[in-house]
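Below sits the subject:
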Amino acid sequence: MKLFLKEEVRKGLTTSELTTLIYVAITTVMLLVYWPEMERPGSLLAVRIGVVCGMGVLNVLYRKLPCRATWLLRSFALILALSYWYPETYQFARNLPYFDHVFAQADWAIFGYQPSIEFSKAVTSVFWCEAFNLGYYSYYFMMTGVLLFCFLYRFEQSERYAFIFLSSFFIYYLIFEWMPVAGPYYYFKAIGMEAATSGVYPDLGNYFASHGELIHAPVRGVFSQLVHDIQVAGENPVGAFPSSHVSMSTVTMLIAWDTRNRWLFWLLMPLYTLLCIATVYIMAHYSIDTISGLLTALLLYYLMDRLYCKIYTKHQRSH
């Protein structure tokens, strides 16, 4: 297989490694600033050291065994590390006041009601409940599938796609850390449903630094149970604005379109559509979060693609 054929060593850091190092550097400075307020700051710092050392090990492995497989491993390992970086955003966000009252008020001003509450009340059938939860749950598999397709069948563009994907995620993580929003199922639980349906949205400050209770939607089938289990196991009151489910699935769909494999794109379209709707239906996001996720994803994809081209061109000239 071409994946394991020996090739000439490519010098320097990959763009995925570069963007990861920038994120690690920014959050390390934040960690040092918040050190007294952080939980287990020493462990968080150790993780950063481990990530940098791991990048070094994979770089050495590639130089010893230069082939497509070891080259791709350098990027894919960093993408897998996103599963750690997301929960960590809460450790930074909990030190700041939350902005849920602003976004809840924005939804009320636009619609005159809370779309997440009214939508979940209006659509109660098991079929649609399961369909929306299927879309929401498919988020992880959509991203993994598209990236694997790119790594295996679009190797020449794989580094570009990995850079766009990682950089977009890191930018959203920084937004979550600097402008925390818990989302309706946390905020409405905190203020009470009567206030939520009456347009009364108090500023709770950093209430969510010590409270993580949320409204659980009724479990009506396999996929609503899976989403419920994810919420119980790994969710924290952070990351609602903009919706990373909508934004990163949009980036994923744009990558799928760019591969020119239309079967891949249209196969994912129904799941993508259900996912976007589900973010409001299960009360994970305000509608403005979902709209912002879509718009910012389009902008970020364009900007990160342009940035990659500039970095790649500069690298080519230097070699």
In short: Residues 2-318 form one domain. The chain is about 75% helix and 0% strand. The radius of gyration is 21 Å. The longest helix spans residues 287-318.
